[in-house]
Amino acid sequence: xxxxxxxxxxxxxxxxxxxxxxxxxxxxxxxxxxxxxxxxxxxxxxxxxxxxxxxxxxxxxxxxxxxxxxxxxxxxxxxxxxxxxxxxxxxxxxxxxxxxxxxxxxxxxxxxxxxxxxxxxxxxxxxxxxxxxxxxxxxxxxxxxxxxxxxxxxxxxxxxxxxxxxxxxxxxxxxxxxxxxxxxxxxxxxxxxxxxxxxxxxxxxxxxxxxxxxxxxxxxxxxxxxxxxxxxxxxxxxxxxxxxxxxxxxxxxxxxxxxxxxxxxxxxxxxxxxxxxxxxxxxxxxxxxxxxxxxxxxxxxxxxxxxxxxxxxxxxxxxxxxxxxxxxxxxxxxxxxxxxxxxxxxxxxxxxxxxxxxxxxxxxxxxxxxxxxxxxxxxxxxxxxxxxxxxxxxxxxxxxxxxxxxxxxxxxxxxxxxxxxxxxxxxxxxxxxxxxxxxxxxxxxxxxxxxxxxxxxxxxxxxxxxxxxxxxxxxxxxxxxxxxxxxxxxxxxxxxxxxxxxxxxxxxxxxxxxxxxxxxxxxxxxxxxxxxxxxxxxxxxxxxxxxxxxxxxxxxxxxxxxxxxxxxxxxxxxxxxxxxxxxxxxxxxxxxxxxxxxxxxxxxxxxxx
Length: 609
What we know:
The chain is mainly α. The protein has helices at about 45-50, 50-65, 75-90, 100-110, 120-130, 135-145, 155, 160-170, 215, 220-235, 240-255, 270-280, 290-305, 310-320, 325-330, 345-365, 370-400, 405-415, 425-440, 445-450, 460-465, 475-495, 500-505, 525, 535-545, 560-590; strands at about 5, 15, 20-25, 30-35, 40, 70, 95.
């Protein structure tokens, strides 16, 4: 810390109790100055020689024969006045970053100008500020902190503006030119810890991180911090991602529990103001602030009941980069007293905002003439949509364990991303399975509604294997899974799919096996029912047969052994699938559940009556 010593005489100020100060000298004091609750017994001559204001006050006092005067409104109070008084006496005074602003404001109040005496206090303090304090990084921050209690004097004397410019200029400087100490407690890189190996016997110069200054500014109060960040942004030399990191660090420091998504105590009004200010300071560039940080801000803003505009802005910003979020980010806890542990409505709003922005981007994007530019512009949104769909699938799997989660909530959120193309529905199947497991009491129609969210054609082999043995799925879904698994197997082997009864084909999605139209009276409810223990047992038996489809056979000389095994396995699977569908069909027919079926003519179609 920089400091400056003024005067050479020993300090002879003495204290008598808590509110009396006097100079220990043989000369009797001839003036009493009251500053707030402290009385100073001093001498006129040294004071009047340097203070224009005291000259006027003493002149008035003599006319009225009053030797005691009041200066209750002096900035800095008794401590600042004592510094000025000691300077008048020529006593030793030490100025530093903590007291220099108070002394400067008090000197201005006392009118200690050069016109009164050359080398007066104002001149000396200004030299100290400009030559030392404002050139020091940490001293500038300390001085800025002290200005708050000295307003409006510190503002009118431009001390605040000089501090802001000094701090912003240093934060904006090229990191290679940073030669002063700074606080940086985060995990450092190897070269920052001087652990980097020597190069030709000489250690490379240690690099300064781009965000070296963010922790020191966290010491500032909110209003000053806002002005510093605004000044830094105005200079335009600090990247938006560093500004975002600074705001994140400030929130972590000033909002207890922010990292955990909760606010632990504190003044609600101040916390609300802090969140509002951070939202206002957010850089406009997309990606300059992490999606995780934005979600924490939105969660905090909701808890603190911040303004509607701030919450809308955060929702909009998160929607721009929702693909960067993780499932853990979205597991936002509801306030105590709510029936559900997670705030599903907030996540729905975020997904809705993402969908709207994707839609608007497609409408507003200009048509490019170059094919490559068109291709790139389309790939990016598709990739983002696939990532968001996967994110929602994972989120649904987590909240599915909530017994109080309504079917409508689950389905509504899943349907918001149903149009987003993604290569696999395994994540969605896992979420559906978890929900059915935790909500065994839902109706058949609700079970059917949930299972319709899933496209069985996009399940992996592992997911299909699990699904056909899943007692929680309707029989309709099990049949669909088996069919598409067989379709994949026969297609890869170049074989035709076996002919299926019309009523079974009617259970499959449109276009999956020709065109069919089936009318049933009593079978619809049974197909949507959960399979019985006998059905599951039969399915497991058939699955065991499916796994054994790798027998030996005659091989052409042009095919290796593995290729022959694959072909034989696929043929075996085709026979087993036909057998399985026939069993399911025969079981329903024997029970008299099928009254009529009318199937339109298409390749491989059959009429069952």
